[in-house]
Amino acid sequence: xxxxxxxxxxxxxxxxxxxxxxxxxxxxxxxxxxxxxxxxxxxxxxxxxxxxxxxxxxxxxxxxxxxxxxxxxxxxxxxxxxxxxxxxxxxxxxxxxxxxxxxxxxxxxxxxxxxxxxxxxxxxxxxxxxxxxxxxxxxxxxxxxxxxxx
Length: 150
Known about the structure:
- By secondary structure, the protein is of the alpha+beta class.
- It has a four-stranded antiparallel sheet with strand order 3-4-5-6. A two-stranded antiparallel ribbon has the order 1-2.
- A hairpin with a 6-residue loop joins strand 5 and strand 6 (105-110).
- The protein contains three helices and six strands, in the order ββαββββαα.
- The mean pLDDT is 80.
């Protein structure tokens, strides 16, 4: 047995040998589950439409006016029945969206999904107009309320 300086208690541990101190230090850092603290979290759901990102063959980039997100038309694939495999893979043209700063892939829509979205445009515009009308009414009601600073 040799005396080893112990940083944890600030004293000399005379009764511990070097192997015991080393095991104690190793055990201290193994408190996280297998894989460590920085492993994958699996909090995301994979998109149904797959695409190679960044795309090698794509259309001109379009930028959305308010959010500055990027859009492009490219090639992708999906599995109609949800069963993966080469025999079930359907290659399609997709509309892909990317984030504004790092250009990470966000989501892709197939041609059928874009057609469904275009069919909903009149309904969406009507709901926007209704919300805009309600916002003006709510602002007028809010102006009548007594406001106080805290």
